[in-house]
Design brief:
It comes from Streptomyces vastus. By secondary structure, the chain is mainly α. Helices cover 62% and strands 5% of the residues.
Length: 237
């Protein structure tokens, strides 16, 4: 297994992306949890990471428990409660670097909910799927147009290095829209292989003969999925 694969296979003590966001924020300078939350929000990290600000204190405590952050100062201003300042430890800096390297270098298998819906869409009539995909495409096109306009505006005031995750989000929306557009075309003109049998299934309630021989073929498909491994493990060429 490659070095990258070994890093990817490592089981981390903390796997919450918010923990990584906290480590990266403390890499800038020591902060108290409230300041960490303000910084994450101000820098727009809540658009690329699912952040539950209510659990941020717990995340910081868990990072401290595992030796990744430590108390560097305790401040008090007037009658305000004490503020505990946390900073990265050497172990925390190493964990952050390894974790980031893993995420940037190794494609990970993710499970988007839309992918789940696509895998199960056979339970709906193809005409209904067509209608729903048309609805989705309209939303994607609006989202892409809005995102493109906002990104162009941001280019005027921010270096591109601070906008790469926004670029990625926009490209994913545009790519999905393009794919949905192509699938819709095949559904509408009937050129999607299997759509005729799919329609027959819903209109007669009987499984078409063409679909009855698929169990073995689906096993082969699963074998192929194992070969196209996106989790960073070595695969058979």
């Amino acid at each position: 297994m490659s070095e990258v694969g070994r890093v990817a296979a490592k089981r981390r003590k903390l796997g919450n992306p918010l923990a990584l966001a906290v480590l990266a924020t403390l890499w800038q300078k020591p902060m108290h949890p409230y300041e960490i939350a303000q910084t994450l929000r101000r820098q727009g990290k809540d658009t690329s990471t699912k952040i539950n600000y209510g659990s941020l204190y717990t995340v910081v405590q868990n990072l401290q428990k595992h030796g990744f952050v430590e108390v560097t100062d305790v401040q008090r201003q007037g009658n305000r409660p004490e503020r505990t300042i946390y900073g990265l430890t050497s172990a925390g800096r190493e964990e952050m670097t390894e974790w980031m390297s893993d995420l940037v270098a190794v494609p990970a298998r993710e499970y988007p909910i839309f992918e789940t819906a696509l895998s199960l869409m056979g339970v709906l009539h193809p005409d209904e799927v067509t209608r729903l995909l048309e609805e989705r495409l309209k939303s994607l096109e609006v989202q892409a147009a809005s995102g493109r306009g906002a990104l162009e505006k941001l280019y005027e005031s921010l270096p591109r290095i601070f906008l790469v995750e926004t670029e990625y989000q926009l490209h994913m929306v545009e790519a999905q829209a393009e794919w949905v557009r192509g699938l819709l075309l095949e559904l509408k003109d009937g050129s999607l292989p299997g759509v005729k049998e799919w329609r027959t299934l819903h209109e007669t309630g009987e499984i078409p003969p063409e679909f009855q021989d698929f169990p073995q073929d689906m096993d082969d498909r699963a074998d192929l999925a194992d070969r196209v491994d996106l989790e960073g493990r070595d695969t058979e060429k």
